[in-house]
Amino acid sequence: MSEPTQNDRLTAMVDRLKAGEYRMTPQRRAVLKVLAESRRHPTAEEIHEVVRADFPMTSLATIYKTVTLLKELGEIVELRVAGRCRYDGRNPAPHSHLFCVGCERVVDAEVKTVHAVTEGLARRTGYRIIGQRIDFLGVCPECQ
Amino acid sequence: MSEPTQNDRLTAMVDRLKAGEYRMTPQRRAVLKVLAESRRHPTAEEIHEVVRADFPMTSLATIYKTVTLLKELGEIVELRVAGRCRYDGRNPAPHSHLFCVGCERVVDAEVKTVHAVTEGLARRTGYRIIGQRIDFLGVCPECQ
DNA sequence: ATTGGTGCAAAGTATTTGCACACTT
DNA sequence: AAGTGTGCAAATACTTTGCACCAAT
Q1: pTM score, two decimals?
Q2: What are the pLDDT digits (tens) for A66-96?
Q3: What is the DSSP string of B55-112?
Q4: Which of the two ends of chain A, N or C, has the fewest CB atoms closer than 10 A to its terminal CB?
Q5: Could you report the per-residue pLDDT of B75-111, keeping only the tens digit for each?
Q6: CA of B126 to C1' of D9 (A)
C-alpha cells in the first residue's frame, strides 16, 4: 500500500495551497478534488463539466487559472495528447503514460527503468534533467 | 556510418511523395529540404522563414499542409514543446528528445533501452504499441 | 486537360488575460 | 478591511479550412 490514496492527494494539494498565500474557494476545492480523484487525465473542459455539477457558475477560465497554478507548484502534471492538454493530479511524480489512439483514454504506464535512463542520459550529455515526458501511443486490448 | 545523410532523407521523402499521387512543387521541395536538413526541430513558422528566403510568396498555410501530409505518411515526427509543434524530419524512426528549458533548443537523445521498454510494456498491458514520445526536459550545459 | 497545390483570408480551437465585483482570510 | 479569486468577455496564439486561381503531370 505505498501508493497514496485519493484523499491523501486532495489533502496534500489543499495543504500546499494553504501553505502559500493562496485561498481556498469552493470552486478551487472542487477542481482539486477532480484532479486528485480522476484516473482519466481530464482536460480542462472535462474538469469544468464535473465542477459545474456542484458549482454551475464556475467558468472555464477559473479551471485554467487553477491548473496553471498547480502546474507551477508541481502538484499536477500536464500532458498533451492529440492536441489538447490533459492533467494528472493523482501522481505528481514523473511517470509515463499509455495513450490509446482508439478510445483516446490515457492510463499510467509503469516503467521501472525511467530513473536509470534519466541518470545515464544526464551523465552522457551534461544536461541537468529536470523532467521527462514518456508517453506511449498504442491500441488498448479492447480497441484492437 | 549507419545514419542516413541529409541527402538520403530528402531523396527518400521526395520519392515517397512521387510514389503516391502527390506533386512536387518548388515550395514543397523547399519544405522537404528544410525538414531533411534541419537539426533544430523547427516549428512551422521557422520552416516558413527559411522557405521564404528562396520562395517569398510561400504561405504559412502551405507549410502546415505539407507537414500534415508528411506526418500522415510517417515521414516526419511532430513533437510539442512549450505549447508549439516542432517537426523532426531527419530521423522518422522513434527516438527521444532532450529539450532545454533555457534556450528552448531540442536535440535528439540516444536511449538504447527504448525498444526493450516498449516490448515489456506491450507484454504486460496487452496494448499494441504503435509509437512513443520520450522527451526529457532539462538545462543544457551552456545554460546551466 | 486534369486535378492537386497554392495563397489569401476567414474560421476554428485551445488557452490566456483584463477588469470589476465577490468572497476568503 | 485587504487583497486574492471569480466570471465574463475580449484577446492571443496556433492551426485548419474554403475557395478561386495556378501549375505539375
Answers
A1: 0.76
A2: 999 999 898 998 887 777 889 988 877 767 7
A3: -TT--HHHHHHHHHHHHHHTSSEEEEETTEEEEE-S--S--EEEEETTT--EEEE--T
A4: N
A5: 998 887 777 889 988 876 767 777 776 666 777 776 6
A6: 47
